[in-house]
């Protein structure tokens, strides 16, 4: 931990945080501590004498500038055009899935449930992309009922 009050050179009236009731004694008894990792984010730390807090302590404020790393977006799978399954492509889709599953069963004898699920998912998504395709941007607007 680092003490933020002592990291910056300030005028003495910006350092003290407590005034005695007689008004002659000033002390620095309030502190802001920060983890060493975030110490470089600290810009300033000082007291504000004019703040009305109804106490004999002064308002102590630390200014931080936090720089966060950008999050990378995950690969988004475009939604499938399910309207195509209402037509004759449904029969083609079913036949293609059946053929792929037969080939998948012949190739894999002893498989863990996790691997079996991954294979099933891959077959279904691949056949769906080939057979019915993805929703185009205009269809998305109509499908979800709101502008994109």
Task: Explain this structure.
The chain is of the alpha+beta class. The chain has 2 domains: 2-64, no CATH class; 82-144, no CATH class. Helix content is 31%, strand content 14%. It is built from 3 helices and 6 strands; from the N terminus they run E-E-E-E-E-E-H-H-H. The chain has helices spanning 89-107, 113-131, 137-144; strands at residues 2-3, 18-19, 26-27, 33-34, 42-48, 59-64. A two-stranded antiparallel ribbon has the order 1-4. A two-stranded antiparallel ribbon has the order 2-3. Strand 2 (18-19) and strand 3 (26-27) form a beta hairpin. The longest helix is centred in the middle third of the chain and has 19 residues, at 89-107. The radius of gyration is 33 Å and the shape is rod-shaped. The two termini are 47 Å apart.
Order of adjacent strands in the largest pleated sheet:
1-4
The percent range for strand residues is 5-15%
Assembly context of the chains:
single chain
Kindly give the count of domains. Answer: 2
Work out the helix count.
3
Number of strands: 6
Order of helices and strands: EEEEEEHHH
Q: What is the overall pLDDT average?
A: 81
- Structural class determined from secondary elements: alpha+beta
Q: Main β-sheet: number of strands, strand sense, barrel status?
A: 2 strands, antiparallel
Radius of gyration: 33 Å
| Contiguous runs where pLDDT drops below 50 for at least 5 residues | none
Span from first to last CA?
47 Å
Overall geometric form: rod-shaped
Helix content: 25-40%
